[in-house]
Amino acid sequence: MTRIINAKKKISRKLRVNLWGKSNDPYLKKNYKPGQHGPTARNGRTSDYGRQLKAKQQLRKYHNITEKQFKSIFKEASRQKGDASENFITLLELRLDTVIYRANFVPTIFAARQSVSHKHVLINGKKVNIASYRLKVGDVIELNDKAKNFNFAIDSLDKLERDIPSYLKLDKDKKTVEIISKPIFEEVPYPVEMQPNLIVEFYSR
Question: What is the pTM of this model?
Fold first, then answer.
């Protein structure tokens, strides 16, 4: 477990951004890559491929999903009508774990997946334990009665560390959130700059 926690802490430093906008992010104290040569490493010129790769890794790590899942979602977005990068963001934002993270039901995206897998989340009154479950406009998501009394849920909702996007309607007292419109990229409150257009270029090589 310690190895997993430490690995999470290295993500922001490796990507050289405060990826989740946390006030205690390790990158804020050590804004260089982890490892023996991290503090003295030079910032060389980044190639187009390097920028595309970083954009992909940044968005993938932010959502805490595997490369296989990430690429599969991208392929689905590419098959849909309209702009592939916009479709891609919409599909990512309609994942169940992403929505409960956006709603501040949990403190981290990692806790979001764990809460879903432990069957603490209901969709329209029915228990769902699949983090990648695709939500749709009109769906109402909530924590079950037991989870609503968990300290992490109460504390996270009290603090509301993350902005609630306009496509979600949060009822803080009932601990429910409703999808009221289709998510679009410009409305997603990412704490760092995301560049889905570069991800399209990466997978189009």
Answer: 0.86
pLDDT digits (tens, 9 = 90+) for 48-95: 999 999 999 999 999 999 999 999 999 999 999 999 999 999 999 999
The string of pLDDT tens digits covering residues 154-163 is 999 999 999 9
**3-state DSSP of the chain:** CHHHHHHHHHHHHHHCCCCCCCCCCHHHCCCCCCCCCCCCCCCCCCCHHHHHHHHHHHHHHHHCCCHHHHHHHHHHHHHCCCCHHHHHHHHHHCEHHHHHHHCCCCCCHHHHHHHHHCCCEEECCEECCCCCCECCCCCEEEECCCHHHCHHHHHHHHHCCCCCCCCEEEECCCCEEEECCCCCHHHCCCCCCCCHHHHHHHHCC
* Domains of the chain in sequence order: 2-35+47-91+193-203 (1.10.1050.10), 95-182 (3.10.290.10)
